[in-house]
């Protein structure tokens, strides 16, 4: 998180200030119902580029649904997404092309890793680049090995998920997401299926990604993660955003809903 008056690299100094701040991912009026239940009640949110946004909120507040709406794993009932190339209505019918266009922008990392059990770590990381992005296999494997090294698994390329710890599996899943080179990485409780020690390995990888100024959106119950890694905290309740600000603002807010949540989670 560079401050505005920090010394600039020579190349950046040639750019006007505004050009250095890319357009955020913008969500407008995202609404999602399941039968009579309103899971998201018209959410407006700007997700800053190059920053880590942490989504917090009680169970059932709509965090997963919101992440899933960003890459259309759930189809919103109404709303628009804008990845910086113009607003895309995502409420009604969408052409397959529009759906693909939206999905190319983001990749999700799930709580339960969702690796293919019959493929090695390398096979998991190369599958989509080869099949979907049509990257030549040799090139995809070379980048996959780099990504596995980046998440601390250089020596596990040939291991199957069943022979990896949960923390290792989740790091393979992160390498797999990175291989898609998405603008935005979405994480839905990436450490909550893991013992604390294994969770710490995954948090270290996430902290590295955050330090590289990638655009991350992370749903978590971990206040220590939010404290350590978040640039911004968004608090949801009943499908609405209750608070959107700095971690400092979240941790010091006297709003009874936030206080209650902090007390329960920290207990
Ligand atoms: P969170 O991730 O914050 O715990 P969710 O986004 O999973 O919350 O869920 C928000 C609300 O929507 C909850 O009441 C949940 O029961 C409901 N919900 C989520 N997914 C479905 C679904 N596929 N079918 C029916 N209800 C759902
Ligand atoms: Mg959830």
UniProtKB/TrEMBL annotation:
This is Amino acid ABC transporter ATP-binding protein. It is a peripheral membrane protein. It comes from the Bacteria. Residues 25-263 form the ABC transporter domain. Its main location: membrane. Belongs to the ABC transporter superfamily. One of its GO terms (molecular function) is ATP binding. Pfam families: ABC_tran. It comes from Brachybacterium equifaecis. PROSITE patterns: ABC_TRANSPORTER_1 (PS00211), ABC_TRANSPORTER_2 (PS50893). Keywords: Amino-acid transport, ATP-binding, Cell membrane, Membrane, Nucleotide-binding, Transport. InterPro entries: AAA+_ATPase, ABC_ATPase_HisP-typ, ABC_transporter-like_ATP-bd, ABC_transporter-like_CS, MetN_ABC_transporter-like, P-loop_NTPase. It is found in: Cell membrane. Gene3D superfamilies: P-loop containing nucleotide triphosphate hydrolases (3.40.50.300). PANTHER family: AMINO ACID IMPORT ATP-BINDING PROTEIN, GLUTAMATE_ASPARTATE IMPORT ATP-BINDING PROTEIN GLTL. Signal peptide: none annotated.
């Amino acid at each position: 998180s560079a401050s505005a008056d920090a010394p600039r690299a020579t190349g950046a100094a040639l750019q006007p200030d505004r050009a250095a701040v890319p357009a955020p991912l913008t969500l407008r009026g995202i609404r999602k119902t399941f039968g009579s239940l309103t899971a998201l009640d018209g959410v407006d949110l700007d997700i800053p580029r190059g920053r880590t946004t942490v989504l917090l909120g009680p169970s059932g507040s709509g965090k997963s649904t919101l992440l899933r709406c960003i890459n259309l794993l759930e189809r919103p009932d109404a709303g628009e997404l804008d990845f910086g190339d113009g607003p895309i209505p995502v409420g009604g019918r969408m052409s397959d092309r529009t759906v693909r266009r939206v999905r190319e922008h983001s990749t999700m990392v799930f709580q339960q890793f969702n690796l293919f059990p019959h493929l090695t770590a390398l096979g998991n990381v190369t599958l989509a680049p080869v099949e979907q992005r049509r990257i030549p296999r040799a090139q995809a494997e070379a980048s996959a090995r780099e990504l596995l090294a980046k998440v601390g698994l250089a020596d596990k390329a040939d291991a199957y998920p069943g022979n990896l710890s949960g923390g290792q599996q989740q790091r393979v899943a992160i390498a797999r997401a990175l291989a898609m080179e998405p603008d935005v990485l979405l994480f839905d409780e990436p450490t909550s299926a893991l013992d604390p020690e294994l969770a710490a390995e995954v948090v270290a990888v996430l902290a590295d990604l955050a330090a590289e100024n990638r655009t991350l959106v992370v749903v978590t119950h971990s206040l220590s993660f939010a404290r350590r890694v978040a640039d911004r905290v968004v608090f949801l309740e009943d499908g609405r955003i209750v608070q959107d600000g700095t971690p400092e603002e979240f941790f010091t807010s006297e709003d009874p809903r936030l206080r209650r949540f902090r007390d329960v989670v920290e207990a």
